[in-house]
Write a structure and sequence with these properties.
There is one protein chain. Helices cover 31% and strands 15% of the residues. By secondary structure, it is an alpha+beta fold. It has two domains: 14-54, no CATH class; 76-207. Strand 4 (119-127) and strand 5 (132-141) form a beta hairpin. The radius of gyration is 18 Å and the shape is globular. The two termini are 35 Å apart.
């Protein structure tokens, strides 16, 4: 599995998630665009001016920092409940491409670039009181960050070590913290898999899908 760029140390620029409709405003604020790096800023700029366009890894996350990306596994009872299966090919294609455009074809977690290396992740909330699985958003993620939300699949295809390294880098976790989070995910996935869920796709109305 190959991302547009691996998470490096000592970067000399910070990638930005700039949709085409924000291009002029980003450049007017002092941002930079070139073909090789895409939209970016230099490390010594005042990042508060670019907060809305920064991937989560490069945003201020408090002290101690909140996680950029939490690992996850979907309950086994909802593995077929995804938008790709529920929508027509044309509607899903429209949604995912809008998702990419809104993030400037950049992973909103780590800053990887390029549509061939960007995927649309469906963010779900599981309400254990009501038994409702609600769509909460569609995020542009690179393949490695995306598989952090599908750890079982990452393990089956042999890329789990790369995914775990990405989680440690993104969230500034050590091995102990990572182990604790993985145990939490496994326990919750087992609990949620004990029941069936009712889908709530009302969020799609914000994209004009009924």
């Amino acid at each position: 599995m190959k991302d547009a760029w691996p998470p490096p140390t000592g970067r000399d620029f910070i990638p930005c998630c700039v949709p085409y409709w924000d291009m002029q405003r980003f450049l007017a604020a002092g941002g930079i665009y070139d073909k090789a790096r895409g939209y970016h800023v230099l490390p010594d700029v005042f990042l508060d001016d670019f907060e809305e366009w920064l991937p989560r890894k490069f945003q201020f996350r408090g002290d101690p920092p909140v996680p950029v990306l939490l690992p996850d596994m979907l309950p086994s009872t909802v593995w077929e409940a995804n938008l790709r299966h529920l929508l027509s090919d044309a509607e899903w294609d429209r949604l995912r491409k809008f998702c990419y455009a809104a993030a400037g074809n950049t992973c909103v977690s780590c800053g990887s670039r390029g549509e061939p290396h960007i995927e649309a992740h469906e963010a779900w909330r599981f309400d254990e009181k009501t038994g409702v699985q609600s769509l909460r958003g569609i995020l542009a993620l690179c393949p490695t960050c995306h598989k952090a939300k599908h750890l079982g699949y990452a393990n089956r295809i042999g890329v789990l070590p790369a995914v775990l390294n990405r989680l440690k880098w993104l969230n500034d976790w050590d091995d102990v913290k990572l182990k604790d989070e993985l145990a939490r995910v496994a326990e919750r996935q087992e609990e949620l898999s004990q029941r069936t869920w009712t889908l709530d796709l009302s969020f799609l109305k914000t994209y004009g899908v009924r």
